[in-house]
Design brief:
Largest sheet: 6 strands, parallel
Oligomer: single chain
Radius of gyration: 17 Å
Shape: globular
Order of helices and strands: EEHHHEHEHEHEHEEH
CATH architecture of the largest domain: 3-Layer(aba) Sandwich
CATH topology of the largest domain: Rossmann fold
Distance between the termini: 17 Å
Number of strands: 8
Strand content: 5-15%
Structural class: alpha/beta
Number of helices: 8
Helix content: 40-55%
Number of domains: 2
């Protein structure tokens, strides 16, 4: 039987990257003589990658953003973010112990994120957790990305899994909508980067700490999906 697979989003789900994302975003904005984004407002900007973060910040500042400027800002953002990686980014509390328990029970893991693949791989490598994941698929791994369900389905396939024995764990409407469109159960964490509570998007289950992502919960979700 195919090994069951748990697919995680990255920023705001596996890793708390908020301070570093905010620092790089604000570096870009200061280069354009714009006001920085306050930490309390970060949830309004993240979830769809750096490009969308910059677009949302310009929109909030009521500044026009043409493609040339956006491309230049992306280069500034990526250079600043890559140079400082991993910065203060760290796995969420309880994550590593939970991965240990689930791995011992026979589960495989993958990452499906709208962060660029090379940045995603670099981050998990620098945090010394890359070996735990069968696949790390980013915004540019395929010709499509979340919320397109093919991003999730192809990530599962790349990890050697099958959709009928997989679940998604994420922190945003994007993750929840992606999993639903793929026909896969989705666990939402409520400590991630979204400006609306994840309950509004009706995930299969909500957790507030990784201790709650138990073997019993995962098996119940897979059994319910198969029935």
């Amino acid at each position: 039987m195919t090994q069951p697979t748990i697919v995680f989003d990255l920023d705001g789900t596996l890793i708390d990257t908020a301070p570093d994302l905010l620092a790089s975003l604000n570096h870009c904005l200061l280069c354009e003589d714009m006001n920085p984004v306050e930490a309390a407002e970060l949830r309004r900007y993240v979830g769809m990658g750096a490009r969308v973060m910059i677009q949302r910040a310009f929109a909030a500042g009521q500044r026009d953003l043409d493609e040339e400027t956006l491309s230049r800002m992306m280069e500034v953002f990526l250079d600043h973010y890559t140079t400082g990686m991993p910065g203060t980014s760290a796995p969420y509390p309880g994550l590593l112990a939970t991965l240990d328990r689930l791995e011992d029970a026979g589960y495989a893991f993958a990452i499906c994120t709208n962060k660029l693949e090379r940045l995603s791989v670099s981050l998990v490598e620098k945090l010394e957790i890359a070996h735990r994941f069968r696949a790390v698929c980013g915004a540019d791994t395929f010709a499509f990305r979340k919320p397109d369900p093919r991003h999730l389905l192809e990530t599962i396939a790349k990890a050697g899994g099958v959709p009928s024995r997989s679940i998604m764990v994420g922190d945003s409407r994007t993750d929840i909508d992606t999993a639903k469109a793929a026909g896969i159960p989705v666990v939402a964490v409520d400590f991630g980067y979204t400006d609306r509570h994840v309950r509004e998007f009706e995930p299969s289950h909500i957790i507030s700490h990784y201790d709650e992502l138990s073997l019993d919960l995962v098996e119940r979700l897979l059994d319910a999906a198969a029935s």
